[in-house]
Amino acid sequence: MDRATIKILGGGLEVGRAAVSIAYRGKTVLMDYGVSFSEDDKPQLPEHIRPSEIHVVAVTHAHLDHVGAAPYLYTTSSYPILVMNRLTKAVAEVLIKDFIKISGYYLPFDESDWFRAVESIHYVETGEEVDIGDIVITSMNSGHIPGSQTYIADLGSLKVAYTGDVNTIDTRLVRGFNTSSATADVLVIEGTYADVDHPERDVVEKDFIDSVREVISSGGNVLIPCFSLGRAQEILSLLYEKFSEGRVYYDGMIRIMNSILASYPEYINKYETLLRATKEFEEVKSASQRRKIVKNGGNVVVASAGMLKGGPSLYYLKKMYDDSRNAVFLVSYQAPQTPGRKLLENGVLDELGPIRARVEWFDFSSHAGFSGLLKIVESFKGLRTVVIIHTGEQAGTLSEALRDRYEVYVPRSGESIEIST
Description:
Elements: E1 3-10, E2 19-24, E3 27-31, E4 36-37, E5 43-44, E6 56-58, H1 64-67, E7 81-84, H2 86-103, H3 111-119, E8 121-123, E9 129-132, E10 135-141, E11 149-154, E12 159-162, E13 186-190, H4 201-217, E14 222-225, H5 231-242, E15 247-251, H6 254-261, H7 271-280, E16 282-283, H8 287-295, E17 299-303, H9 311-320, E18 327-330, H10 339-346, E19 348-349, E20 353-354, E21 358-361, H11 370-379, E22 385-389, H12 395-402, E23 407-409, E24 416-420
Parallel strand pairs: 3-6, 6-7, 7-8, 12-13, 13-22, 14-17, 14-18, 15-16, 15-17, 18-21, 22-23
Antiparallel strand pairs: 1-2, 1-24, 2-3, 4-5, 9-10, 10-11, 11-12, 19-20
């Protein structure tokens, strides 16, 4: 009887630095190799794995918590094949270069290592499959952000599926994960929201647009801090369709991401809507524009960064926080100890003091909740084992719902799971 070893190099009972290795019959596939950040913003890498042991590295999408540590695998003379699609490569390059620029002092790799990684890329577009040294990797749309992919690695007599970050609902930006006709023995699935269901998107959108209108009608400005990739484009598309009472601007790295996504219409659900939004709304290109926006009322600003950790969003906040007519509408996940989380929970930022502007959070999550995750698991044919990662204590709700039908693991980072075949 053969045995496969699934090792959780990162993302075990933690959200971030996703990295999972699958070793079977002398072959090793690495799924993602991302980073997370400590409270002092120092990058935390996954556990090390020798590049010479790896045959294939498959990256699900371009967010740093899934790809940020990948250059570290290309600092030696042995380079594993790197699998991703062209959109993920284009976006990851921007984010990784920016990451190295900001955090390079703490990193064991530099930009030259990323360039070596690029030379090793074997592009696999969504819906395609590729055979690499007797390992067949099939990609599926994961529904998280444009270009995000779920992978199924066929290692012979063992099929392991890895979702990366996944969502089941259709949005203006991406279609949801298609939960039909997939086959796997083992599923490694994220569980970021494994214990809750998100509110219906239509309800969230209506509440959000109504709230924006309220602020604009009172003569205030609305700041919408956004992740530059994914959330910003979803919000811009929504505003284009539903809001016409004020001026809309976008600022920061969002501008670069808009430009990249415009070149990949096949990965955008409502491409024309996004294209029209980026053309009709105004791109902020100068400090004088920013000063003019905050001086006058009736403006909506979509700006990076989504957790208010720097970027133009922090500039706008400092200019808008002490006017009760203004609002800060958070639409992205707010990690513990970030300025956005502190603002949401306490109404205070250390450097500013109490916030007079209206502060609200709207659930535009691009991760599946409990019901969506359960639906994904149940959609796989032949499934025997489920491994829940990219999660914390919330994994208990999902694992308990699955234990009567599957062998379920919720491992810590550093732990290994032995699978008999």
